[in-house]
Design brief:
four-stranded mixed β-sheet, about 375 residues, five-stranded mixed β-sheet
Length: about 375
């Protein structure tokens, strides 16, 4: 029976006995039942996760990693399992995760040079007062949201913001004390992600070269460089992507016009809610040398959903996409981390404003097109 489970696990994970692997991730979880699905995915990827079927109390992944990155481990009946999960840094080599409690609770890492740093972070979430308070507040906020108690929710959010600031101080001190650890890159990227790119650059520069020569360090540097390249007053970086009919469309094709580059997706509820305001602005100024170029972050195989959303929302302008979700080449070039997002360009292709919503968009268009 165990050999059968092993054969299935190898097939599911895409691993063969002849494949090259440079990384192993092993789990020893007493409550893990034989036959349970275990999924491993890169936090920054929208691709299909690796998967194995567990033995009694254990699992093992054999992987071929190019560099260190942040990963999410899920245990459950399908790839969207959310009941038991944990995330951690993983790089080529070996890492073991052991838990005394139910499945992934009280996870302890071993087998790598950075395992003790992962354990240090995990311990803080259970012992540091700010983390304990933040966890309790999070539960209260979820309950207030569930019962639609907006007054209580607003008060809790304000309190959470103050506690979160204390957590951030702890994280900054932790990074300061671990400049050579690749886990510090995970902390900067995930917990302390600065919106101010100059501040992020300063923090990144405090890490030793070995600590930032991984996917996380490279992504943060890309974000910094992209922010500089797409700052207000800079020429918008050119790109080419196919429209709804498969024809290539380039940003430079719109030179001479005021242009709104609009990042959205058919699955994005806030985007769909914002679309009426975008349509209103388009109709008001389309005869005044203004147009829109929408870049969709729709998923592979979702072309019909993309086209239907364009039709249903009345988006009568040019649309492009590579249907590659968050890996859309243009969104990565511009380092789009949430949608809706937009950039307003002048006729010379220079960025005039970004992330204009509702009345803000109309006011800005009225200002520049008067």
């Amino acid at each position: 029976m165990k050999n059968t489970w092993l054969s299935i696990a190898l097939l599911l994970s895409g691993t063969t006995l002849f494949a090259q692997s440079n990384t192993t991730l092993e789990g020893n979880l007493p409550d893990l039942k034989e036959g349970t699905f275990v999924y491993l995915s890169k936090m920054s990827s929208s691709g299909k996760p690796d998967s194995v079927i567990a033995g009694a109390g254990n699992f093992r992944f054999s992987l071929n990693l190019e560099e260190g990155d942040m990963y999410l481990l899920r245990i459950g009946k399908d790839r969207n399992a959310t009941g038991y999960l944990t995330f951690f840094y993983l790089e080529p080599g070996s890492l073991k995760v052991t838990a005394k409690g139910p499945l992934l609770t009280d996870a302890v890492y071993s087998g790598s040079s950075y395992a003790s740093d992962l354990n240090s972070l995990n311990k803080a979430t259970k012992t540091e007062p700010a983390f304990i308070e933040a966890s309790a507040l999070g539960k209260e906020m979820n309950e207030a949201y569930r019962v639609k108690d907006t007054i209580k929710l607003k008060a809790l959010e304000a309190k959470y913001g103050r506690v979160d600031s204390i957590k951030n101080i702890w994280y900054k001190d932790w990074v300061k004390n671990h400049p050579a650890s690749p886990v510090s890159a995970m902390v900067l990227s995930f917990y302390l992600r600065e919106k101010d790119m100059s501040a992020l650059q300063q923090q990144l520069n405090t890490l030793k070269p070995a600590a930032r020569k991984n996917a996380l360090g490279k992504k943060m540097q890309h974000s910094i460089d992209a922010a500089k390249a797409t700052a207000i007053g800079k020429p918008a970086p050119d790109f080419t992507q196919n429209d709804t009919l498969g024809r290539p469309v380039s940003l430079k094709d719109f030179k001479g016009k005021y242009l709104l580059i609009d990042f959205w997706a058919s699955w994005c509820v806030p985007c769909r809610q914002e679309n009426p305001a975008v349509v209103k602005a388009f109709n008001a100024y389309k005869d005044k040398n203004f147009t829109i170029l929408s870049v969709s972050l729709d998923q592979p195989g979702a072309k019909e959903k993309w086209l239907k959303a364009i039709h249903d929302d009345g988006l009568a302008w040019t649309h492009v996409s590579d249907l590659n979700w968050w890996d859309n080449a243009v969104s990565r070039q511009y380092d789009i981390r949430s949608i809706p997002a937009n950039y307003l360009l002048g006729p010379d292709g220079v960025i005039l404003a970004k992330n204009l919503r509702g009345e803000e968009l109309e006011k800005k268009l009225e200002e520049v097109l008067k």
